[in-house]
Design a protein that fits this description.
This protein is an alpha/beta fold. It folds into three domains: 3-129 and 255-342, Rossmann fold (3-Layer(aba) Sandwich), CATH 3.40.50.300; 167-244, no CATH class; 347-508, Rossmann fold (3-Layer(aba) Sandwich). Helices cover 42% and strands 14% of the residues. It is built from 20 helices and 15 strands. A seven-stranded parallel beta sheet has the order 3-4-2-5-6-1-7, sandwiched between helices. A six-stranded parallel beta sheet has the order 12-11-13-14-10-15. The chain has a two-stranded parallel sheet with strand order 8-9. Helix 13 (287-294) links the parallel strand 5 and strand 6 (297-305). Helix 4 crosses helix 5 (92-105), helix 9 (191-201) packs across helix 10 (207-219) and helix 16 packs across helix 17. Residues 512-518 have low confidence and may be disordered.
Length: 518
């Protein structure tokens, strides 16, 4: 067993649903992308020459910056692995969408995975994309899609317009019953003989009702013959659908879309081979998940945020580092690229925020101001109060009042640090602002709004850098925090550096100030 797999052994137990036999299979049959990861972890930065062509032609109808175009060209080159890192708003989702469309146009088999379910909406670019959230399995879904969208559904329960619905007649129009009764009707049985046979079929029915049914059956023989033929044609369509789906499954050309968690639940996909797998928010991958996904991909493209940690991973202790961060540091430059521009945040708020999160200034492209308000673009409104179970109603009231003063012309959203505060805000938001999106950290992933109001409720030590990164990078024009300034500036948390930035305007609320108790 090589160094890579020996160090990986304890981490593989993090996925108990994957048995030892499958890990052994991946070790003995590594994909091209997994081979490159193995060799880099064992020997350091290496170059792997693919024996099969992995390059494809990137096509896009979207404008890309020069920085993004370089990343796109590297991802489309003849590489089994590409790691693309960037800050929020640098265009990673756009690149993933362009890559997906290009691969579909060239009829490549692709697996698209995200970390959050709401991100999947970015990739619904083809009606026949299979979503792993479907309750049915891939094979059943594929056959049903072909039947519904391409072979059609033949109506087989019609009657002439002048006939009223007949419950007894309906019972005789199933494929099996039609074959039996058409044979009887076509054999020149007398009316009495047909009625006698019907009395056996419907023993509880009166004589007069049987007379009517016998008369109708005789008159409807041509119609019943046509309906039996349609049933038989439909059975042939089933066979055609199965044949087409088998061919498609063999080519594996249907894009499969899901979250990483959903992929882990579909074991039938673990031994498939995809031309390319694209993983967004790859910074959340563990080594075991990365190996499982890499095992199904000839070409693997990972996109995610730059690491928030200022420490560098150790080369020999790869298993103790984030795989996305480690690969972004130690792969050869041909397999990794960093996006150095961001296009979401206004330059006024981008400078202090990216300096706090990443310890560096990120280039911001100039753009026209979409929203202009009398308030500072980056400010904290000091609202003091006693945090209680993650709820601060006094702060919530100030936030909702501030929102009402802004008016309805702008796009406004609210992010709450705690689920309890989110619920309080949703319950107390007036009816005229019910359309305002109110969510917590996970709810705001991959969303953008012009004006974001943040309710900083809770205890500073519970705030993580990754959650703060989500909160601070969702607003394009105005970011306004409602917080107890004394609490958040005096306690150790990722917020401390932001509150000391000179660009941050502090507005103190002096009315009805409560004495905080921490």
């Amino acid at each position: 067993m090589n160094l890579f797999w020996s160090k990986l052994q304890p981490l593989l137990k993090q996925l108990p649903d994957v048995d030892l036999e499958h890990w052994q299979y991946l070790q003995n049959n590594p994909s091209l992308s997994l081979q490159l990861i193995e060799k880099t972890c064992d020997r350091g930065a290496v170059y792997l020459t693919p024996k099969i062509p992995l390059a494809f032609s990137p096509t896009t109808d979207l404008p890309l910056s020069a920085n993004q175009q370089i990343a796109l060209n590297l991802a489309a080159a003849n590489n089994p692995l590409m790691v693309i890192q960037g800050v929020p708003g640098s265009g990673k989702t756009r690149l993933a969408g362009v890559l997906t469309k290009s691969l579909i146009k060239q009829q490549k088999s692709i697996l698209i995975l995200t970390n959050y379910p709401q991100n999947k909406s970015n990739y619904q670019i083809q009606n026949i994309t299979f979503s792993l959230s479907n309750s049915q399995d891939y094979n059943t879904w594929l056959t049903e899609q072909i039947k519904r969208k391409y072979l059609g559904k033949i109506p087989m329960d019609f009657l002439p317009l002048h006939l009223l619905p007949d419950a007894l007649l309906a019972q005789l129009r199933s494929p099996q019953k039609l074959e039996k009764w058409l044979h009887i009707l076509q054999a020149n049985y007398s009316l009495e003989e047909i009625k006698s046979l019907l009395s056996t079929e419907f023993p509880q029915v009166s004589n007069s009702r049987l007379d009517l049914l016998t008369y109708r059956l005789q008159k409807l023989v041509p119609l019943l013959e046509q309906q039996l033929w349609l049933h038989q044609l439909s059975q042939q369509s089933e066979a055609v659908a199965s044949a087409i789906s088998a061919e498609i499954k063999q080519q594996n050309s249907i894009p499969i879309l899901g979250t990483v968690g959903e992929f882990l639940q579909h074991q039938q996909l673990w031994k498939k081979t995809f031309d390319c797998a694209i993983v967004e928010s790859a910074e959340y991958l563990s080594w075991s998940k990365l190996v499982l996904i890499a095992g199904v991909a000839k070409k693997l493209i990972l996109l995610g945020n730059l690491p928030l940690s200022l420490s560098f991973p150790h080369h020999h202790n790869f298993s103790q580092s984030s795989p996305f961060e480690w690969l972004g540091e130690f792969l050869l430059p041909t397999y990794r690229y960093r996006l150095t521009e961001q296009f979401r945040l206004h330059s006024t708020i981008a400078r202090p925020i990216f300096d706090v999160l990443y310890g560096q200034w990120i280039r911001t492209q100039p753009k026209l101001d979409r929203v202009t308000l009398p308030q500072a673009r980056l400010q904290v409104i000091d609202v003091r109060g006693k945090p209680l179970d993650g709820v601060n109603s006094w702060e919530g009231k100030r936030l909702l009042k501030f929102m009402s003063e802004l008016g309805k012309a702008q796009q406004i959203g609210i992010l709450a640090f705690t689920e309890a505060q989110k619920t309080w805000l949703q319950n107390n938001c007036t009816s005229e602002y019910r359309q305002v999106f109110i969510g917590s950290f996970a709810d705001w992933v991959d969303k953008e709004i012009e004006i974001l109001l943040i309710s900083c409720v809770g205890y500073p030590q519970q705030l993580t850098r990754s959650d703060l990164a989500i909160a601070l990078t969702r607003a394009s024009d105005y970011l306004i925090l409602f917080a107890d300034y004394q609490l958040w500036s005096s306690r150790s948390s990722p917020m401390q550096n932001l509150l000391s930035q000179p660009e941050l305007q502090i507005t103190r609320i002096v009315e009805e100030i409560l004495t905080p108790s921490y």
